[in-house]
Amino acid sequence: RRAIGVATLVPADPETIQKATGAPMGFLGPVNIRIPMVIDRAIAALATVVVGGNAVDVHLKGVVPGRDFPLDRVFDLRNAEAGDPCPRCGTTMVSRAALEIGHVFKLGTKYSKAMGATYLDEKGVEIPIIMGCYGIGINRIMAAAIEAGHDDNGIIWPLSLAPYQVSLIPLQVNKAEVMDLTRKLEQELEAAGVDVLTDDRDQRPGVKFKDVDLIGISLRVVIGERGLKDGSVEIKWRHEAAARNLPMATATQAILAELAEAKATHDAYCRERISARSGAATS
User: Fold this and answer.
1) 12 near 45, Cβ under 8 Å?
2) Alpha helix locations (H) across 119-250?
3) What domains can you pick out in the chain, each with its CATH number?
4) Less CB within 10 Å around the terminal CB: N or C of the chain?
């Protein structure tokens, strides 16, 4: 509006375009047309462009801005910025970073006409179906979840997306008692439908803890000689700072109860992190 000095600016309707150019919408171009033009800086900087030819089914290639159409009024029109008023409602626009994880496309009747896909309206007339499609990027969902849910130690998966819900970490892999309990927990949890990753590498505890945090497995269960003596196993949620102990005798049932209770609360925690990181932006 500032560029052309008007108070109100609205998109031209198809009838106005037809009257001004002699061609239907989709074929408007700047060559040999007698209407005022305001050119964006990005267009003026291009070497050659393809434009509408102001005639049905005509486009012009190799058009040079400044040679084939005038550059008398060039402004920075293309990019909206934070703080600009919305052209429709006047509300101040806010800019937020977001990750696009899906698309919705309106296909119109292009394909339904070709396929003869129609419906009968209330008058019994066959009308082409208006088609649409959508796509969701699985890889993008993973990337967005990691971007929104992580800390300095690694990924914090939502429980519903975690590759494994539980990581079993035996501290002394050369001790039969430790490994027996580890395998027992592994079998019982998997029988209950839980995805379990057992880290039976002969590594220091710190290495195992660091790796499981990096991967982002939701619940860490530690089995060691000290716990065997005390009759307990240690558990720690990935998103929590403190670990705690569960009675060994009822460890499987307690872990299953933890998972059931955490399904809603843990995913809600991750959603809060997403909102905090994105400023409540959605895409």
Assistant:
1) no
2) 138-148, 176-191, 205-215, 225-230
3) 1-95 (no CATH), 102-136 (no CATH), 166-277 (3.40.50.800)
4) N
Sign of the dihedral defined by the CA atoms of residues 105, 110, 115, 121, in that order: positive
Which residues does residue 52 pair with via DSSP β-bridges, in sequence order? 59
Roughly how many angstroms between the first and final C-alpha of the chain, as a whole number?
28
Q: Is 125 helix (H, G, I), strand (E, B) or coil?
A: coil
Confidence band, pLDDT 50/70/90 cuts, at residue 51:
very high
- d(CA 96, CA 28) in angstroms, rounded, equals 34
The SS3 of residue 168 is strand
Six-digit token pair at 234?
């240690």
User: What whole-number distance in Å separates Cα of residue 152 and Cα of residue 129?
Assistant: 51
How far apart are alpha carbons 259 and 48 in whole angstroms? 61
For residue 221, count CB atoms less than 10 angstroms from its CB and return exposed for 0-12, middle for 13-18, buried for 19 or more. buried
Residue 44's identity, in one-letter code, is: A
- For 30, 39, 54, 78, 101, the CA distances from 43, given in Å and listed in that order, are 11, 7, 18, 9, 30
Q: CA-CA distance, 109 to 81, in Å (whole number)?
A: 35
- Model pTM greater than 0.70? no
Q: Which amino acid is at 5?
A: G
179-214: per-residue pLDDT in tens? 999 999 999 999 999 999 999 999 999 999 999 999
Tracing tokens 């499987």 back to the chain, one arrives at 252
112 in the Ramachandran plot: left (φ > 0), alpha (ψ -120 to 50) or beta?
alpha
